[in-house]
Amino acid sequence: MCLDEPIAVEERARGKKSMEDFECLDVDYSRAVPLEPFIHQVGGHSSMMRFDEHTVCKPMISREHHFYLSLPKNLRKFSPEYRGVIQVSFQEDKDGFIHLVAHPCETNHSGGHSESDSSPAGSAEEDNVGAASVHRTKRRRRRKEKEGINTHEITHRVRLLRTGSIEVQSNGTGPFLVDLVENKEEAESLKGLGHNPWSLRCHKRQLAEMRKTAPNSKLHKFILLENVTSQFVYPCILDLKMGTRQHGDDATEEKRNRQMEKCASTTSASIGVRVCGMQVYKAETGHFLCRNKYYGRKLTEDGFKHTLQQFLDNGEAIQHLVMPKIIAQLEELKSVLEKHQTYRFYSSSLLIIYEGNNCFSGVNRVENGDLCTSHRAATTGVAVKMIDFAHSTYKGFRGDRTVHQGPDKGYIFGLENLLRVFHEIADGRGIAEEHDT
Question: Do the beta carbons of residue 44 and residue 203 sit within 8 Å?
Answer without folding.
Answer: no
